[in-house]
Amino acid sequence: MFRGRRQISDPDHRCLYRSPARLCPGQARALREAIRAEAPHAEEKIGYGIPTFVLGENLVHFASFTHHIGFYPGPSGIAAFKEELAGYKGAKGSVQFPLEGPLPLDLVARITRFRVQEAVARTEAKRRRA
Q1: Per-residue pLDDT for 73 more than 60?
Q2: Is 114 in contact with 81 (CB distance < 8 Å)?
Q3: For residue 47, which phi and psi values (nearest 5 degrees)?
């Protein structure tokens, strides 16, 4: 449950589907399912106060705001899909998807898949060094 900017712990992640703004529950579920489909072994947790998928490292985060959904795949995820994300507002490690119109779930899935591949490669590299 959201209270201002602070979030109360919710182990069932029901808070993902409670709208602090105009986010419809279907959009949040669809985004989560697109991420989960590409990262089935990732752990879901609340990190930085928002939903986070973790696979040895933080893969992606997302959150809803008044006029957009923030998707946070980190700088490498943004850089790898720079051309496809050009039509959206964003920053070094984030992108904003407006609430009006459909979410680019295919793009979210491909970015998540890329981040999973990065995380697996880093984990394997660490094992080889150990």
Answers
A1: yes
A2: yes
A3: -125, 140
Query: What is the secondary structure of 45-85 as a DSSP string?
Result: EEETTEEEEESSSEEEEEEE-SSEEEEE-HHHHHHHTTTTT
Q: How many Cβ atoms sit within 10 Å of the Cβ of residue 102?
A: 8
d(CA 83, CA 53): 24
Give pLDDT tens digits for 52-64. 999 999 999 999 8
Ordered by where they begin, the domains of the chain are 2-129 (3.90.1150.200)
Q: What sign for the dihedral angle of Cα 118, 124, 127, 129?
A: negative
Place of tokens 């930085």: 48
Residue 91, strand partner residues: 94
